[in-house]
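A quick aside before the break. I want you to see a complete sequence-to-structure record at least once, exactly as it would be stored in a machine-readable document. Don't worry about memorizing anything.
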Amino acid sequence: MPEKLSPSLVWFRQDLRVADNPALNAAAGAGSTIVAVYVLDDEAPGTWALGGASRWWLHHSLKSLAASLKKLGIPLVLRRGSAQAIIPELVKEIGADAAYWNRCYEPFAVARDTTIKAALTTAGVKAESFGAALIAEPWTVKTQSGTPFRVFTPFWRTLEKDRRPAKPQKAPTHRQAHIDLAGDDLDSWHLLPAKPNWAARFGDDWTPGEAGAQEQLALFIEDALQDYPTTRNLPGIEGVSRLSPYLHWGEISIRQVWHAIELHVGAGADAYLRELGWRDFAHHLIWQFPDLPEKPFHEEYSAFPWRKDPKALKAWQRGQTGYPFVDAGMRQLWATGWMHNRVRMVVASFLIKHLLLPWQDGEAWFWDCLVDADLAANAMNWQWVAGSGADAAPYFRIFNPVLQGEKFDTGGDYVRRWVPELAKLSDKWLHKPWEAPADMLAKAKVELGKTYPKPVVDHDTARRRALDALKTIKD
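That is the input. The structure line, written in tokens, reads:
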């Protein structure tokens, strides 16, 4: 009679899929019974515990994952609390001789996982982690002198040349004898918003889970990839991949996306693969510089004279700045948990440079409101706009929200969708309603200051104020 193997534990985190999941495949390859667990750990992240939109996504994604694992005969056990305590306890509870997981790169996750791996190893349990989220592990991509990259273009050249990801693996196919374990009921976590349900429209835009990820990838390739270099800047059309939440939650792997895109040779594929490289660059930075979400990458920006203006911050958060292109973006974010990338840059520039409010305020709002909230990407991109980050846009580059709207929302489809009170204004005045003649406003039933706000700040005044503030840290 063959020797009975001890169970293996697979700890799911930001890898909520069964296909091309190295940790799951390693456990399946060992031939033992598998127990899968997801731990809702709000302790280790501290300030960066999951935001509201992320919790909405997680609820639906875990339902999808549990169904997929059930087909393989693997139960998904839900536990809530400190993963640093729960994982070793669960290993002991099931008598596992091995635990597998795929890596996360946030500073708190690295510290937590290192402690857990050491504790399991000391207890004689095999603890193995895998790279499953990035093109290349952050510590493997270095300059010729062995230092971290601080500029994206040479980072991308190195990555593109030397680090083509391996082909994705298939999901395990054989059923596992399972162990019945006590776990939390998903609904008891109350991840979905209570009344009023601010996420009521999320389901119209998103299908969380592995199947939804594959469907979105296919739609992008079929409908938008070929023209991606141009259409990715036009928020009024479906010109981008919308894969960011699926990649963040690991419902689709970077290898699956890369190899699917690579089949379609051309400028669209090249441009999109470069965007995947930008995503890797963010994780490369946060691995090397763990203070990135809180502190300026360039220290001189610590002395920047930010303003405190709760009223202006709230107007920005609610899409009530009086600048239609900015307001459209902020309302899209609130309604769908997502915002077009071009518009993200414009609204971030407006907060930082027009309102002179700290980039950390915007980072925190995005963290709570985005279904694709990713600590590395969020921090890097906010610092990029602020001019304080690695390879950042210079602070003196100040987006004019009117010109940005006129250039990238020429026909006004985006603004009319998200700022419907301006829908009847002609294209000429849509992005600058305060300049419209009184009869045009009356005809469109727009009353500035009542049906739609007046601008919270004048563009030219704000620009001069921002540049004057910059001089205080440059002189």
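Two observations worth writing down. The chain has a mean pLDDT of 95. The longest strand covers residues 34-40. We'll return to this after the break.
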